[in-house]
Amino acid sequence: MKILIKDSMGHKTVEFKPMREGRVKLFVCGPTVYNLIHIGNARLFIVFDAFAKFLRSQGFEVFYVQNITDIDDKIIKEAKEENKPWKEIVARYLSQYFKDTSSLGIDSVSLFARATNYIEEIIDQIKRLILAGVAYETTDGVYFEVSKFTDYGRLSGQQLDKIRPGARVEISEDKRSPSDFVLWKKMKPGEPYWESPWGKGRPGWHIEDTAITEALFGPEYDIHGGGSDLIFPHHEAEIAQMRSLSKSGYLSRYWMHVAMLNMKEDKMSKSLGNIITVADALKKHSVQALRFFMLNTSFDSPLHYSEESLAAAEETVSRISEFYRKLDSARGSGKAGMVDVKRSRDAFMDAMANGFDTHAAMTVVLDLVTEMNRTMDRIGTRDRKEGIEFMNEVDSILGIVRKIGTGKGSEIVEKMISARNEARKKGSYALSDELRSILLQSGVAIQDNGPDTEWWFT
Fold first, then answer.
1. Are 50 and 295 within 8 A, CB to CB?
2. pTM to 2 decimals?
3. How far is 259 from 337, CA to CA, in rounded Å?
């Protein structure tokens, strides 16, 4: 199957051709672990989780690496504010990150690469950049000299002479140009440090990614992913660093950028204080509804958050899941071929291969649900089997199907839900909430739909 990618480099859709047939090297910028991730962050990780799973469903061997920024100004600032060791801050939020992504059904990453595990590689890259004549030492660190890399700004369309000092670029009196970015920060009193040829210090933000990818992939690889807010300066800096060493025409052959999740007119971000954490979102909505909401649109278009949108996603997921339940228990004796499941499967995969169009893929699924629901009481054994197999395949990629009310322990769960609903009818909301909490802690999620209550194992 021919796969097309919406490539941010040049803003065009192109055919995907991996460097090695059947193998894909995928790198995605991960979190800086100084705080909880929010659902805006989660959009990025859900999109690439589904993308990696789709590639694997097509027979590709995908080596998916995600970096973890575990040393950074934000981490040091948080440690000072809490009066805690920086490693304690990292350990806490890294652990929570893994919990949050696991709860969102994100399990496709092959390797999480922590920046502090690659200090030697980072120092080696900086040494080579200095030898190449594109980096220089100052009183406060080592900087990359942007004017020495003529392609700087190609990915973002940023014009070098219009870069504003301080616009996510370090301000330093010793820099040769305001656009130069830091590779190594010399230690300030009380800060964590590592020994280096330039004295005690720590790596800059951009250099960690190229040190990691060069160590794991080599100087060139297939796909680089990240949020659209990272295009400039972060990804421009990565390109400048690695290409200055490799002399290659590219760092990554393809670039995929996920657009922002917005709250009204603003992007969701910690700095604006308008975030909804993953844990808080999952108290109100199922993981399947969150994934449906995130994936039911083009990944490179901004997505606007609202409770109404999540409620609509919840209703759609309930419809899909109820269809799956009925299909699983259907015992009709109709003739085969009443519904062309193969046609739907082909259309689904075609949509996914066409620039990773998950919205079109969702539409295919919903159309099949409507079509098969019409003939559910007459469905044939083969159609039922093909329908279940297709829905399982959809779920293995998108993660949007709830397996409602099935599995070991169902009788106990049903009794607890019955007790909870009785408590709600009597107005005993404290007891109702307590029973819901016990169910959640036991790995059972529930969703109230009017008088009915759906449940599923998480």
1. yes
2. 0.87
3. 41
3-state helix, strand, coil in the chain (%, to 5): 50, 20, 35
pLDDT at 167: 45
Whether 406 shows a pLDDT value over 60: the answer reads: no
Buried b (16+ CB within 10 A) or exposed e, 403-428: bbbeeeeeeebeebbeebbebbeeee
Contact 36, 278 (CB under 8 A): yes
What is the helix (H) or strand (E) element at residue 438, kind and residue range?
helix 429-441
Q: Which two tokens mark 229? A: 């807010």
CA–CA separation, 232 vs 235, rounded Å?
6
Contacts of 191 (CB under 8 A, 6+ apart): 76, 202
pLDDT, tens only, 146-201: 999 999 999 998 776 666 544 445 666 688 999 999 999 999 999 999 999 999 99
State both tokens at 121.
């590689």
Alpha-carbon dihedral of residues 15, 17, 22, 25, nearest 10 degrees?
Answer: -110
pLDDT reading at 145 higher than 60? yes
**Distance separating alpha carbons of residues 349 and 359, to the nearest angstrom:** 12
Q: Give mean pLDDT, residues 320-324.
A: 91
